[in-house]
Design brief:
The protein is mainly alpha-helical. It has helices spanning about 25-45, 45-65, 75-95, 100-115, 120-145, 150-175, 190-210, 215-240, 255-275, and strands at about 10, 175-180, 185. The protein has a three-stranded antiparallel sheet with strand order 1-2-3. α1 (about 25-45) packs across α2 (about 45-65), α3 (about 75-95) packs parallel to α5 and α8 crosses α9. It is globular.
C-alpha cells in the first residue's frame, strides 16, 4: 500500500486524520476540573475521599446496571449504590475488621439473586458491587497508608498520563490498531505511548518528592499496563451489550465508567502491592 493510498480498517490515519472538534475544549476543561476535585478530596482526608468514592461508585453503578440491561435508576442500581456506601462507611468506622468486604460480597450475592428472580443476567448484575466497590474501597484503604494522599495522587498521575499520552501519540502516529474488533480507536502506538508517558510522569513525580525515579518509572509503566487492561475490559463489556459509551455525564469524556475504567483495575492492584506485599510506592520519598 502506498503512503498516499487509503488507510485500511486495521490502521489509523495518524496526524493527517486529525480534525478539530469540540472535545478539544471540553475534554481538558472538564478533565482539569475533575482532577482538581479528586486532589482536593484526597488531601481533605479519609472521610472526603470516601465521600467522593461513594458518589463516583453510585454514578458508575447507574451506568453499569443500565449498560447490562436494567432501566435507568432501577432497583439493582439503588442496591449497588447502598452497598458501596455501606462498605466505605464500615471501613472508616471499623477499619480493623473485614466487615467492609463482607458487605461487598453480600451485596454482590443480593444483586445476583434479585436479578435471578427477574430472570435477567444475574452474573452481570452481581458483578456490579464487586467491580465498582473493590476499587472504591481500595482508594480508602490507600488513603489510610503512610503518605496515603501522595500515593493516591501518584496513582492518578500515572493514570492521567497514560490517557493523555495514549490520546496524543495515538492521534499523531496512527498505525496498526491494537484490537479493531474490540476498541477500534486504540492503536499500538497510542498504547505504548501511554505507557511511556506514564513511566516518565511517575518518575518525575517521585523524583520531585525526593524518591528514586527509576523504580517510579517502572511503577508508572505497570499502572499504565493495568489501566489499559481496565479500559479494554470496559470496551469488551460495551461490545457485549452493543453500547458505544457507558453514558454522557462528563462532557468530552463520556460516562463515569469511561472516565474511571483504568482506576477500577489499577487501584485494587496498587492497594494489594502496598498493603499486602509491602511495596513503598514513594521509593524513599518523605513528603
Amino acid at each position: 500500500m502506498s503512503r498516499t493510498g487509503p488507510i485500511s480498517a486495521d490502521h489509523a490515519p495518524g496526524a493527517r486524520g486529525i480534525k478539530f472538534n469540540l472535545d478539544w475544549i471540553t475534554r481538558p476543561l472538564f478533565g482539569g476540573a475533575l482532577a482538581a476535585l479528586v486532589v482536593a478530596a484526597v488531601f481533605g482526608g479519609t472521610p472526603y475521599i470516601a465521600l467522593f468514592a461513594a458518589f463516583a461508585g453510585g454514578a458508575a453503578a447507574r451506568e453499569w446496571h443500565r449498560m447490562v440491561g436494567e432501566r435507568v435508576f432501577g432497583p439493582i442500581f439503588f442496591l449497588t449504590t447502598l452497598v458501596i456506601a455501606a462498605a466505605l462507611a464500615a471501613q472508616i468506622l471499623l477499619p480493623m475488621t473485614p466487615l467492609a468486604w463482607l458487605i461487598l460480597a453480600g451485596g454482590a450475592v443480593a444483586a445476583a439473586l434479585f436479578a435471578a428472580l427477574r430472570e435477567h443476567l444475574p452474573v452481570w448484575h452481581g458483578l456490579g458491587p464487586l467491580y465498582l466497590g473493590t476499587a472504591m474501597l481500595a482508594l480508602v484503604l490507600l488513603r489510610g497508608a503512610p503518605h496515603g494522599a501522595w500515593i493516591i495522587v501518584g496513582l492518578f498521575v500515572a493514570i492521567w498520563a497514560t490517557d493523555t499520552g495514549a490520546l496524543i501519540v495515538g492521534n499523531l502516529v496512527g498505525g496498526p490498531r491494537l484490537w479493531p474488533a474490540l476498541s477500534p480507536n486504540k492503536t499500538w502506538a497510542g498504547t505504548l505511548g501511554g505507557v511511556a508517558v506514564a513511566a516518565l510522569a511517575e518518575a518525575v513525580y517521585v523524583a520531585l518528592l525526593g524518591g528514586h525515579p527509576l523504580p517510579g518509572a517502572l511503577l508508572g509503566a505497570a499502572i499504565a499496563v493495568v489501566g489499559h487492561s481496565g479500559d479494554l475490559f470496559e470496551s469488551w463489556v460495551k461490545r457485549v451489550f452493543r453500547r458505544k459509551d457507558s453514558g454522557g455525564l462528563i462532557p468530552g469524556h463520556g460516562g463515569v465508567l469511561d472516565r474511571i475504567d483504568s482506576t477500577l483495575f489499577a487501584a485494587p492492584l496498587l492497594a494489594l502491592i502496598v498493603l499486602v506485599v509491602g511495596l513503598d510506592p514513594m521509593f524513599g520519598a518523605h513528603p
